Amino acid sequence: MSLVRYRANDYSVPVEWGHREVLVKGFVQEVVICAASEVIARHPRSYEREDMIFDPVHYLALLEQKPGALDQAAPLQSWNLPEEFQRIRRLLESRMGNRGKKEFIQILRLLEVFEEAIVAAFAGRIEYAQTTYVDHKTELQEAAARLGHSVTYTVLDVDGRPHDRTFTCAAVLDGEEAGVGKGPSKKVAEQEAAREALAKLGVQPT
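and the corresponding structure tokens:
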């Protein structure tokens, strides 16, 4: 871990500054760490002993190379991100599996440049960009039209608490269930159902 020690406590710095010379300034309420006349980290000052004070953002560059550690990395254990971030993570992982985890870390890396509230404010646009670059529903509609089928969608189940729901939807061709999908929103579940229906029609989804 990239840490510097000050008055019997350890404070994190960005991983690129690990094992490099830095200047630590202690104030009543905060600890400021500088390198090459640049402030590279700020932390609330701890008056405990043998305490470890992390800024999770400092470890995102390393985590991007080891996305499997996202849920185990000690610096991230007490990181309470806004619900918008959790929604994006569920969306990406439901659509992309393990690759979605790496995509989520890349979104978190925006926090290296922007304030958390700013990134959260754009969460809707990020989600839109992540969900609309592939449109299986339009593909299915076009394929069904070529084959003389009609397409509808129906919600089979909604599970979970209001802020953490999982939708199950079906794509229906000419009254028969052709594909089932799940996701954190109705829109995502319908896209997954359309993808499965396309496969059953012998059409390779993009």
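(Above: one complete record from the training split.) The CA atoms of residues 42 and 66 lie 25 Å apart.
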